Amino acid sequence: MTGTSCAAGRSLVLEPAAATRRQPPTAARRQFTCSQPLSPAWQRSSRGSTPVRLQVLCSAAPLQQQQQQQQPSRPPPVGAPMAAAMGQPKEPSTEGDVLIEFKDVWKSFGSKSILRGATFKVRRGEAVGIIGSSGTGKSTTLRLAAGLLQPDRGEVLIKGEPRRGLISDDDTSDKLKVGLVFQSGALFDSLTVGENVGFMLYEHTKLPVPKIKELVAESLGKVGLSGVELLYPSELSGGMKKRTALARAIVRDEQHDNVEQVIMYDEPTAGLDPVASTVIEDLIRDMHEKHGEGRHQKQQGAQPQQVAGQQAAGVGGTLGGSPAVGYGLSVTDKQPQASATQPLPGGITSYVVVTHQHSTIRRAVDRIIFLHEGRVVWEGSVDEFDTTEEPIVRQFASGSLQGPIKYE
Ligand SMILES: Nc1ncnc2c1ncn2[C@@H]1O[C@H](COP(=O)(O)OP(=O)(O)OP(=O)(O)O)[C@@H](O)[C@H]1O
Prior knowledge:
It contains twelve helices and 17 strands. It is an alpha/beta fold. Helix 7 crosses helix 8 and helix 9 packs parallel to helix 10 (358-364). The longest helix has 18 residues, at 274-291. The chain binds adenosine-5'-triphosphate. This is ABC transporter domain-containing protein.
């Protein structure tokens, strides 16, 4: 991922003094820094009187219905996109309401054309992987979906409604929250784990500090990191940082508990060893089961039956099932759901993972979207990914130097 802002989610305008006003004591004494450089667009001096504008939190980003901005004219097509020659990728057979839709989305940075007509849908209940060669616009796609960028042309539809602007402090829509977990985690180095995870709650709610701490502990418990609130990011392993970022993305904001959520993970397992990767992959899957598709409540008279992962939802618990050695986390095997249940509102009902890792594709993804030269050139299930004769997919899967994917 290149050129990222510090984090995604609600944007905040933090003046140095204001930034500390509603923080817990330790945060109040510390200057905000970020483990990831801010993009120039958001960067301002944290000294002096200029407000520091940060996109904070890799977290649930509320949709905004802002004034439609004038869009620049369509950029000229650069080169001959592969997709044109390949025809349109087939529509996924998955049923379900469309939560996020890209319709002929174009995005350039300066003279560099990155997305060139990207079109795809993410439906309720889906676990989608976006793959493709480096620099083809995968992270840009996530940032567009999360509202950190605007398309030059085309539409990003959220539950059928166009996203009209960048995320701002105006919280006008409670239809769908789109959370983004950056590759680096984008944790604030100068804040503790607890302060990082609870940052949004400290900044955007009037919840009392003890309540926020309770919610933070709950969230950390869900990712198998109970009791690390007082550590700093520099004291965490790479896998723990990623889990902390995940805890921050899923921390409960009780005011929006019923709002449906899609989480987008940008290379969540990059740089991790195979076992740590498995932990993250299963966690991503388990969060979905437990906080979205698996969220069911018993109807009257139903037989008591545990819903997948439900036992792990308590504060400070591990995720039940067999332990994942050395990582303090275990993941629940999927169980059949009670027949006499009805869905609970809210929760993580879909997720999207950008990844280069085969293990992540196999373990955390059901449907793959293949992006090449800024367009979707192939879509299919993980099984179809293994069997398709599509040359670009076969080259990607095998890592061969021969084929349509060229590196300069
Ligand atoms: N904010 C930005 N300003 C200028 N150029 C950018 C910006 N963000 C991305 N780019 C350009 O867009 C290209 C695509 O970036 P993006 O991160 O979306 O690719 P990617 O497919 O995720 O790549 P990778 O797999 O290597 O992470 C990059 O090569 C970069 O040059």
